[in-house]
Design brief:
50% of the residues are buried. This protein is an alpha+beta fold. The longest helix is centred in the first third of the chain and has 19 residues. The protein is globular and about 75 Å long. Strand 36, helix 6 and strand 37 form a beta-alpha-beta unit. The protein contains ten helices and 39 strands. Helix 2 crosses helix 10.
Length: 695
């Protein structure tokens, strides 16, 4: 190993010797412009050479982190915060109440069932028993309509690849049925089987490009090889397909998407000649079925409604021509819609916080559901059932569950957790700041009461800004650095353009040739906190994951003077080649592609974290890149190549590290133990480099 620990001139912190990353003579030509890719060999994450480099990097990072004197104290604080009973909102199946529960530090939450809300709970499925280290996680659950069978979808090591199993709920036994190579799917029951979505077996499960997604039907008791294809495209390899079956098993919906909007088809199984009818096919827009009731198909859509609305179609004679507005577009963004007791539960986002309403059968607002504070809400409900269950959370409000009876209008608290945390000690406020072009951007600040604006406060700044995803308030024992807040720091979550907080126009303003707006919004957040007397340059740590990892890589290159530490997690760092791996092609509607045009290529290269490292600029902050060896969404090659390039460049004495998690993926389903390990290292790294000494 020591032979790999060679000094790279100009690219080391004092006393840090980075592992040697050889440079190869690989050059791609884009519209006549040659672009070297000297670390192309790191794209092969199965090679012994890459494995040796990863092992050396992990040893270097582990040695560095081990020297942080308060690291164990940070781990203890995160563990204390994590060690509380967590429960999800109940959901009903044939008169029984199911819910997920975690006793505290269990790697995965356990599924329980009750005969009544006040009855004893019995274990249905404990995912912790599916692996010895908690790396098998549940992704989806679907129950047959008679309540006898439960199909459960799992992932291993955080992979996007899924397997499906079936449990007989009368015996508790797992049946021989076993589906493999499923992806981006659940199990939609129809009769004695279910629909699921899958690909053909890939050559390389971790990196091969995924093409020709298909919807299959599996009948219980038969081998997967007998499953028939319900829906596919023979000509469009880069499409996703998903089936949805209504509760009465009369209608099957097919959603066809290129990753942006989607076409929508429906088949009425009561028709004399059942066939799929197109309800919407303009893939610039998204059409999500809500359900079927009162002879109408209800769909939530952003077609002709950037803030979203609900439309209906004739269920007896489905056709695109029967479309009619049901709930019109409002001022705020409609973020979710559900059928409940033949009424509707609609959730709107107001400045990134949830507001929920009950609407009647005619599409008229009846009343607002009162929520504890600004935060995030999610509902579990059934078309014919007056009991509506929901979960609510905010930054300092751990997830609590409630039941609303639509017949009486009464709400009851079902569960509120107890944990080593006093929310009364903290303040959460929402501020608005101007971006570079004057756009008003919202940001949440969390800090301890009595904080003084002395211009010296350490700040943790987090952002995402992409794919129409809204970043709503939520409690997180891991991502929110309470250890730093305890020492007088500030946590800031900013709602950047590219997200969905203000509808499609907000999303579109952060895509393709407008992606720089996202980076400008984030930089402006740091500048606002400085101008308002909260903090100073080099007292701010920036963090984000996936598309947020891209964000961190880009803003560090553009404004290295602002940051005191940076942690890009599982980031998209090579913007010229991202579309060549696994599901990367699906991101082109947000990013554009390097082969689209010369203009698009030049725009991507200008901000691509890998390609825009400023060699010779010596004020880069300390950086710790994180990734996982089984990440088959944003493949680890992005982070490998970026880290190698950072370490080779002349960017000043601050340390540049990479932390590679083993037997983990993009983040979903990660066991509790790995979450605590990861965020202990992230928070310790940040606090250490911002000069925060945790007591």
């Amino acid at each position: 190993m020591s032979s790999m620990l060679l000094t790279i001139a100009g690219a080391r912190a004092a006393g840090i010797h980075y592992p040697d990353a050889k440079r190869v003579d690989t050059v791609d030509v884009y519209f006549g412009t040659p672009v070297p890719d000297p670390y192309r060999w790191l794209e092969d994450d199965n090679s012994a050479e890459t494995a040796a480099w990863v092992a050396a990097e992990n040893k270097l990072t582990a040695d560095y982190l081990a020297k942080i004197p308060f690291r164990n104290a940070v781990r203890k604080r995160i563990t204390e915060l994590a060690d509380y009973e967590k429960r999800g909102a109940p959901f009903k199946v044939k008169g029984k109440y199911y819910h997920f529960r975690n006793d505290g530090l269990q790697n995965q939450s356990v599924l329980y069932v009750q005969d009544a809300l006040d009855a004893p709970a019995r274990v249905v499925l404990d995912p912790n028993k599916l692996s010895t280290d908690g790396t098998v996680a549940l992704q989806q659950l679907n129950f047959s309509n008679d309540g006898r069978y439960m199909a459960y979808v799992i992932t291993r090591n955080g992979s996007d690849w899924n397997e499906i199993f079936v449990m007989d709920l009368t015996t508790g036994e797992t049946l021989p049925d076993h589906i493999v190579w499923a992806k981006f799917t659940d199990a939609q029951w129809l009769g004695d089987g279910f629909f699921y979505s899958a690909y053909d077996a890939p050559e390389d499960a971790k990196s091969s490009k995924n093409e020709f997604h298909k919807v299959y039907y599996h009948r219980l008791g038969t081998p997967q090889t007998d499953d028939y294809v319900e829906y596919r495209s023979m000509t469009e390899p880069l499409m996703f397909y998903q089936a949805m079956v209504t509760e009465d098993e009369r209608y099957i919906f097919i959603l066809e998407t290129d990753g942006d909007g989607n076409a929508l088809y429906v088949k009425d199984l009561h028709d004399r000649n059942p066939h799929y009818v197109r309800l919407a096919d303009d893939m610039r827009y998204t059409n999500n079925p809500i359900g079927v009731d009162h002879g109408k198909i209800y769909v939530m859509t952003n077609q002709d409604a950037p803030q979203w609305k609900i439309v209906s179609f004739d269920a007896e004679h489905p056709s695109a021509a029967s479309r009619a507005d049901f709930v019109p577009e409002m001022q705020w963004v409609l973020s979710s819609a559900s059928l409940a007791n033949h009424r509707f539960i609609l959730t709107y986002d107001r400045d990134a916080a949830s507001h929920a309403y009950v609407y009647d059968e005619q599409g008229r607002e009846q009343y607002e559901i009162e929520l504890p504070t600004f935060g995030s809400v999610s509902f579990n409900c059934k078309k014919d059932d007056p009991e509506v269950f929901y979960s609510f959370t905010s930054f300092t409000f751990p997830t609590s569950t409630y039941v609303l009876n639509l017949r009486t209008g009464l709400t009851k608290l079902l569960f509120r957790p107890n944990l080593a945390f006093n929310p009364d000690l903290y303040v959460t406020e929402q501020v608005f700041y101007p971006s570079k072009d004057g756009t008003r951007v919202p940001m949440f600040l969390i800090y301890k009461k009595g904080l003084k604006r002395d211009g010296k406060r350490p700040v943790f700044l987090y952002g995402y800004g992409g794919f129409n995803i809204s970043m709503n308030p939520a409690f997180s024992y891991s991502r929110t650095p309470f250890a730093m807040l305890d020492m007088g720091g500030i946590c800031a979550y900013t709602n950047l353009r590219g997200g969905g907080e203000y509808g499609e126009s907000w999303h579109e303003a952060g895509t393709k040739m407008k992606k720089q707006n996202v980076f400008d919004d984030f930089i402006a957040a740091a500048e606002y906190l400085i101008a308002q007397g909260y903090t100073a340059p080099k007292k701010i740590a920036c963090n984000g994951g996936s598309n947020g990892g891209l964000l961190v890589g880009a803003v560090v290159n553009q404004r290295p003077d602002l940051w005191g530490a940076a942690v890009p997690q599982v980031g998209v760092m090579d913007m010229l080649r991202y579309h060549l791996f696994t599901i990367g092609w699906n991101w082109a509607h947000d990013y554009g592609r390097s082969d689209d045009s010369k203009e698009m290529f030049e725009y991507l290269r200008a901000y691509s974290p890998l390609h825009s490292i400023r060699d010779g600029v010596d004020n880069y902050p300390p950086i710790m890149v994180t990734t996982s060896d089984h990440d088959d969404r944003v493949v680890p090659a992005h982070s490998f190549k970026y880290a190698a390039a950072l370490q080779a460049a002349h960017t000043g004495p601050a340390v540049k590290l990479i932390r590679v998690d083993v037997n983990a993926g993009h983040g979903h389903g990660k066991p509790m133990s790995k979450v605590i390990d990861e965020y202990t290292d992230i928070q310790s790294f940040i606090m250490y480099n911002l000069g925060v000494k945790y007591k």
